[in-house]
Amino acid sequence: MNLTRKGEYALRSLIKLGLAQELGKPHLSVTDLAESEQLPLKFLEQVLYALRTGGFIETKRGKYGGYLLAKPMEEIRIGDIIRHIDGKLAPIACASLTAYEKCSCPDETHCGLRMLMIDVRNAISNILDRYTLANVVEVTLRKILRDGVDLEFSGKNDPVVEAAIREASSFNPVDPKDGFLAELTGTQTKTSQ
Fold it and tell me: Which fold is adopted by the domain 5-74+132-185?
């Protein structure tokens, strides 16, 4: 797997759209999105077009229009986003389930490299397919709130922000024993620190 700049920008954009939605701003203009994430506008427009054709976002026209999530965040798997933007998750094509290509190895069935790369692919896809955009947005929001960082889309004492804070404090992570969720739940083991 190689997360390209386009893939990175796609993920950052979807996370920002998810955060905005959680804070009561269901859509963002391309300019607001580019400025808040410090992304080049023209390239971001291409990324957003790819996300729109993949069914991840949609547009709302008009004075108060912009980009918004096309489906619930719980239905958007991180692995699906990366596959749509960057293609296969496998490090080599002969190990891919979705974009398999025969390699130059004379005995693919007994190729140690291929077997190793299949394990790598499985590990990557198990992680990226386990988490949804909702998980990432929730963890991001929890960390922002925990660290006292100003929320970009709402003012202080905003009822939407207060509701987000209450909901974030009751968050039940998918698997707190390891990964990016561990820090927020205080369950990191000594070997993972």
Answer: Arc Repressor Mutant, subunit A (1.10.10)
Average pLDDT score over the chain: 82
- For the chain, give every domain's residue range: 5-74+132-185, 88-130
Look-up: residue for tokens 């992570």? 173
What confidence category does residue 191 fall into, taking pLDDT thresholds of 50, 70 and 90? very low
What mean pLDDT do residues 81-90 have? 91
Task: Look at residues 185, 161, 163 and name the one whose alpha carbon lies nearest to residue 172.
Answer: 185
Per-residue pLDDT at 130 exceeds 80: yes
For 137-159, letters b (16+ CB in 10 Å) and e give: bbbbbbebeeeeeebebbeeeee
Q: What is the pLDDT of residue 187?
A: 53
Q: What span, in angstroms and rounded, lies between the C-alpha atoms of 28 and 44?
A: 13
Measured between alpha carbons, how far is 16 from 137 in angstroms, rounded to an integer?
8
Whole-angstrom distance, CA of residue 28 vs CA of residue 21: 9
In whole angstroms, give the CA distance from residue 189 to residue 192: 5
How many Å apart are CA 70 and CA 76, to the nearest integer?
Answer: 10
Give yes or no for a contact between 18 and 69, defined as CB atoms under 8 angstroms apart.
yes
Nearest in space to 23 (alpha carbons), one of 161, 135, 143, 159: 161
Rounded CA-CA distance 46/69 in Å is 16
